[in-house]
Structure formats: C-alpha cells, structure tokens
Amino acid sequence: MELDTAYMITVFVTMFVVIDPIGIAPLFLALTRGMTPGQRRRIAVRATMTAAFVLALFAFFGEALLGFVGISMPAFRIAGGILLFLTALDMLFERRTKRREDKTEEQHPDDPSIFPLAIPLMAGPGAIASVILLIGERPGGEGMITVLSITALVLIAMTLILMASSYLDRLIGKTGIDVITRILGMLLAALSVQFVLDGLAAFGFGPRPS
Q1: Distance of CA 114 to the CA centre of its chain
Q2: What is the pLDDT of residues 105-129, one digit of tens each?
Q3: Least confident segment among 21-35, 92-106, 164-178
Q4: Of the residues 93, 172, 178, 204, which has the fewest C-beta atoms closer than 10 A?
Q5: CA torsion angle for 172, 42, 61, 65 (degrees, to 10)?
Q6: Residue 69: exposure state from Cβ atoms within 10 A (0-12, 13-18, ≥19)
Q7: pTM across the whole model
Q8: Which residue from 118, 111, 103, 104 is spatially nearest to 35, judged by alpha carbons?
Q9: Cα dihedral sign, 35-24-15-115
Q10: CA-to-CA distance for 155 and 122, rounded, in angstroms?
C-alpha cells in the first residue's frame, strides 16, 4: 500500500486540532484538583482509552449508520465541514474553552475519566465527524488504517500531555495556551472549508477533489 503523505498530514492535523490535547490539559488539572500524581495517571489512561473505543466504533460503523438513515458521504462531508468550522470559530474566540470550563463546573465527580473527559471533551461531535469524514476521503483499508493509527498516536500524545499537564501549565502559562489554541483554530478553519468544497464538488459544484 503506497503511503499518501499529504493525506496522513491532513489526518494528523485534523485529529490533533479537534481532539486538542493542549487545550484539554488545563481542564484536566481543574477536574483532578487535589488528586495524587498516580490518580491523575490512571484517570488520563482511562479517559483516552474510552475515547479511543468511541472513535474506533464510529470509524468502523459510522458510514454504515449514515447509509442506514439515507445520508450520503458528500452530504455528511458538507455538514461535518460546517460543524468543524463552527468549532474553529469557537477556538479562535475562546468560546470552546469557556464551554468546557462550564462543563467542569457543572459536575465534579470522583472519577471524571468517562464524563466529561472522554465524552464529550475528547470524543466529541467534532472528533466523531472528523473520523467518519477522513475515512470517507480514502474508502477501504487505506483510510481506515491511516485514520485509526494516527488517531491512536494523537490519543497517546494526549495521555502523555495529561500526565505532564502540571509541568505544561507552569511552562507555557495561560497566555501561551491561548495563542496555541488560536493557531490550531485557524488550521481547523482551513481544513473544514476544504471538507465543504470537496462535498460540493462531489455534487457537481466545482472541480472534483483529487
């Protein structure tokens, strides 16, 4: 199987931006305030494993579910692109962070690994839509293997970042995290527009995606 470097880069950037390990790190600190490093490590691993299971589930059955309810991939690509663009706007104007912080204030469970960390912070609507869209870009084994492998790498990076989140918070600071979030938001906005253009092209509006 020939590796498509451009496709792999697109998958990595999309999944890293949507899952947003750096943006979740300070919220992880808030949710695990007062816990020992060992407890934080266990919660980080449990949360990322749960998110991996949810995303893999949609990777395998997401397109079949769309077919069952009569939604074509081009239509889902356009809808997903719009959803990702709204997510990018939230990141650029800090609304996404504010909503996440509100979720952490609503409930303070003893174990936040499933909710709100895994769902909806890691495996939220944007991540689920991205998995289905990216696999749809390369139907068959190539897209599935590439998306699942790179998503796994992003979630491993998420685990490591969460384990080191206290050091990251001191090193980068709130201003640094805000700057990184906005840069990632700009990248996601461009990628989401590309999804919409590809969906329109599949319907015959403009040139077909290569």
Answers
A1: 16
A2: 555 446 889 988 898 789 987 898 8
A3: 92-106
A4: 204
A5: -80
A6: exposed
A7: 0.73
A8: 111
A9: positive
A10: 9
The candidate with the shortest Cα–Cα distance to 55, out of 128, 153, 141, 138, is: 128
Over the stretch 5-17, which tens digit does the pLDDT of each residue have?
A: 999 999 999 999 9
Coil, helix or strand at residue 51 = helix
- CB count within 10 Å of CB 41 equals 15
How far apart (Å, rounded) are the C-alpha atoms in residues 76 and 65? 12
Contacts of 80 (CB under 8 A, 6+ apart): 129, 130, 132, 133, 195
Q: List Cα–Cα distances, 209 to 84, 126, 192, 201, in angstroms.
A: 19, 22, 14, 7
- The residue assigned the tokens 């936040």 is 112
Which pair of structure tokens corresponds to residue 85?
A: 């663009």
Mean pLDDT of 92-104: 63
Joined together, the tokens standing for residue 168 give 């990251």
**CA 183 to each of CA 1, 38, 48, 63: distance values in angstroms, whole numbers, following the listed order:** 33, 32, 24, 31
Report the amino acid identity of residue 122: M
Confidence of residue 95 (pLDDT cuts 50, 70, 90): low
Is residue 33 classed exposed, middle or buried when 0-12, 13-18 and 19+ CB atoms within 10 A define those classes?
exposed
